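chain below, 167 aa
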Amino acid sequence: MDANAAAGSESQDATRAARELIELLEVLWERGKDIVPSNPVSASQLRVLYSLDREEGINLRTLAELLGSTPPSVSRLCDRLEALGYVQRAASPVSRRELVLRLTTHGRTYLRNLRAKRQDALQTVIAEMTPAERRALLAGLTGFQDALDETGSVPRRKVAGDDARSA
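prediction:
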C-alpha cells in the first residue's frame, strides 16, 4: 500500500471513530440535559444560548449569521427562549434602531448547570482511561479543535486555562 492510500485509510478510520464518538457524546449530553432541573431546550435553542454566551450583546442578524440561519427563524427561537426567561432583548447602546440579545441570569444558570452535569458525565468516563490514553485524547482533541479553528467553521469560546491544557 502506498503512502497516499495509507493516509486516506487513516483519515477514513479517524473520521469513522470521530463520528462514533460524537454519537456517544450526544447520548451523554442528553443524559446531562435530562438531569438539569430547568426547562429543557431544543438543540437549536441550545445553539442560540451557546452563541450568546460566546458573543454577549450581539444583534439578531449577527446571531443568524453565526448559526447559518435566517433572521426570522432565529427570531422565533429567541422568542421561545425569551418566554422561558433565558434570553432578553435590549436596546443597543450604539443604535436606537437595533436590539441586542443577552443571556439572562436564568439562562446563564441553565448553561452552567448543563455544562457541569455534562462535565461530570465526561469525567466519569475519562477517569477510567489510563494517563497515556488521556494524554492521547487531549492531543487528538487539541489537534481537532485547531483544525476547526483553521477552517473558521465554529467560533471558539475563550475559557480560563485555555492556553494551559493538561490531561
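The longest helix spans residues 3-35. The chain is about 65% helix and 5% strand.
thats it, cya
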